[in-house]
Design goal:
148 residues, alpha/beta, five-stranded parallel beta sheet, 6 helices
Length: 148
Amino acid sequence: MSDHDILSDAEREALSAVMHEPDLPAQRVLIVDDDKDTRELLSEILALEGIRSMTAASGESALKLLESNKSIGLLITDLRMQRLDGLELVSKVRESERAALPVIIVSGDAQARDVIDAMHLSVADFLLKPIDPQKLLALVKHELGMDL
């Protein structure tokens, strides 16, 4: 640092990081499923299209991630999970500061009542397992505003 510099090296680095960081909308997808294979599969499908994701094995850990990570722009959750199921998770999200977060629910054994309850919670869509990768990608891109 020379005598003519107004900023310290640390301030210059911080300013540079902010200036080079694009001002993009939240683009990360949070995948919540108590089945590890399903989480990995959904994450891989998204990754093949360059869509970044993070995963959670429970509704409780998903809530913590949503609280601490503002880059999450979409939630994909399983319907049937232990302790905090998908509908309860969505309900808690709707009561939080992330209430407007788009949500896609996936399930292998949904009943008509589940779909109705999900729609009352303003979910973007409800997909049945096995997941059609093309349909999933189209929905994700639409919800993230990537289909323009």
